[in-house]
Amino acid sequence: MSLAASISSATASALRQRLAALQMPALAPLAKSVALPVMGLLVMLLVWELGARQVQTSLGALPGPVAVWEQAGNLWDEHRAERDKADAFYARQDVRHAEQLAANPEAELRFRSYPGKATFVDQIGTSLFTVMSGFFLASLIAIPLGIAIGLSPTLYAMCNPVTQLLKPVSPLAWLPIVTLVVSAVYVSDDPAVSKSYLVSMLCVMLCSIWPTLVNTAVGASTVSSDLVSVSRVLRLHALSHVWRVVLPSAIPMIFAGLRTSLGVAWMVLIASEMLAQNPGLGKFVWDEFQNGSSASLGRIMVAVIAIGLIGFALDRTMLWLQRNVSWDKNAVLR
What we know:
Layout: H1 3-52, E1 56-57, E2 60-61, H2 65-103, H3 120-151, H4 153-166, H5 171-185, H6 195-221, H7 225-233, H8 238-276, H9 281-291, H10 296-325
Antiparallel strand pairs: 1-2
Helix pairs in contact: 2-10, 3-4, 3-6, 3-8, 3-9, 5-6, 6-8, 8-9, 8-10, 9-10
């Protein structure tokens, strides 16, 4: 072998080693973040498929992943068919209105909503709107109140017993009280929102307010004494002190409470919808359970997976928001 060929071979070998050294550190996190979760999901699906075959219920065998996937497709097809019916309904209504206006330009038109049943996708939309309404209302109350409690020992002494008393109350206990109160107070011939929505939203608010309240109070009460001293030296106004010093310091604790509250809100909503038969995913699950058809188990499993995926997506959304809002970009958030 010539000297030039030897040098070329040695150079190529060195380049391959460098490339391997550069690629391995990049591949290791990829394998950890993608391959391991995928492997865990595959193991879960395998255990599910094998275990489902062994369970026989009054409605037949417990559906495996394949059967559940088929039911998910059926639910989507039902949604598309219902939307087509709704489009045809509104098209006929528009034609009828055009004919009425052609005959009499002063005619009083009557607009009707599509009377068809809510589909699985519609129920998901209803549940999401309800849970976000209750969660935002709870956050609007909990964050300012938590900051005030954290900054005032007197207010903390007053509110702590109430918080500890109401925090563990189950949504099952709140539901009948909220239902009766809404029925007694919310009386209108032309209500802006339905009572069922109001009941579910208030139950979500009552049960999800506490994690954010407690975490915000803790975050506001543990602001660094150095930062407080700087605020005093600069003679910041009370609101400016809260905005510039307390709030940035308490943001990690506030978001920890918000993430917990959102998870609690989602679980509470499904339970309240099932028990009160209010529109949403909980009612869908209960209706399928009462239906008792051969496809009911598969459709319930689709709802269970959808509930889990939506809960996961809500948590990831809050985590993304926390990463963008928090001043400490080096903090490990998961």
